[in-house]
Amino acid sequence: MNLLLLKPDQITQQSATVSGRQFDHLLTVQRAQVGDSVRIGVIDGPMGQGIIKALGSEQATLEITLDSPPPPAIPLRLILALPRPKMLRRTLQSITAMGVKEIYLVNSSRVEKSFWQSPFLQPEALEEQMILGLEQARDTQMPNLHLRKRFKPFVEDELGNIAKGSQALVAHPVTEVPCPINCDSAVTLAIGPEGGFIPYEIELLSSIGFQSVHLGPRILRVEVAVPALISRLFPA
Amino acid sequence: MNLLLLKPDQITQQSATVSGRQFDHLLTVQRAQVGDSVRIGVIDGPMGQGIIKALGSEQATLEITLDSPPPPAIPLRLILALPRPKMLRRTLQSITAMGVKEIYLVNSSRVEKSFWQSPFLQPEALEEQMILGLEQARDTQMPNLHLRKRFKPFVEDELGNIAKGSQALVAHPVTEVPCPINCDSAVTLAIGPEGGFIPYEIELLSSIGFQSVHLGPRILRVEVAVPALISRLFPA
Predict the structure, then answer these.
(1) Where in or outside the cell is it found (chains A, B) (predicted)?
(2) All domains of chain B, ordered by start, with CATH?
(3) Does residue A232 belong to the interface with chain B, where contact is any CB pair within 8 Å?
(4) B231 close to A (CB below 8 A)
(5) I need a surface site. Which of A177, A191, B77, B190 has the fewest CB within 10 A?
């Protein structure tokens, strides 16, 4: 936790109250003492400093100053085939930590149906992972996360508008075109499941203007490909 | 497993024998049948195709053709503060999958002493993770992995020679210099532990010519920072 990310209801004027996971982290990991200063931020708001005024047995009270903006979002709309549950949480944290603000988790032929039943897809569980990603990266802007359980209608009815005004790319090993480097404009990037999109899905994406691009001769797992692709498109 | 990576002792002339983990994977994950063709490679050797000639209860026999070279290594010498054991395996797999061939796992003030006691540091355990990384990426060249339990003598007596003829960089959030993009020459990159190198360590690295570079305003976990840094330096 490199940033203590507060919800608006934790704040009253210049003071904030911290309990639960964040309080435990302050105490056990950061070993915070009264008088210590910690980096804070408000969800979808500014960042600043908090000075610990009181440490109880279950909560801490901080005097807060909010004086700086969060880091800029990266101009990427990410379309990601739903990863298997154990990967989903880590991947969602990573994507959030890297500054992506528009995330679509979509179905694909090679996504196992059971993945959609995972408890990790509950809204609170998804929000928790994104909050952990923001706290890790020192950001406050929550991503907009969308779930789309049907690939074809999503691509045919929605994706064209989502990608409008951006460079539309799909990561696909079977192409001669390398993924662009250091883009200066918005990108919509589709990333398939382990095993990749099936040819029909690539054709459908191509039919609405998605260009297949590769990441080099090596096949990378989603958890590695995602940071590698984002960092290559937007080195920041 | 995108590549069946064989050890030389599995091969006799044009034929190879597969058992254990690889055999189980062929059967249960790839559901291979006699006559199927699978991508193969020989550790530190060429890649090609294997046709399954016989499937026993515990082993498979393949007729092999080795006709293509592995993908080129990326010209990166990676100096990585030893990650915590649960991260080490995944990170080592990722680094290997991305094509790094010179890896130094080193101590640092913020590396917990207990990490060095991990069973995952046994040579066989480390080799297994690198083989998994190569099989994932479709590569055959095993990385050279070195463990250095003492930071100061490593930097003072060894690192200068390791970095010779390369651009020496240390990932450090507290600098104004961004990490270079798309390098055309060799790089030696040092990456600290969670929490980063301590100032003394940065000074020591700087004293032998390491330039501190940052990855942007966000603080990334090692498992995300490593692919992001490698992909940025060598987009491939």
Answers:
(1) Cytoplasm
(2) 4-68 (2.40.240.20), 76-233 (3.40.1280.10)
(3) yes
(4) yes
(5) A177
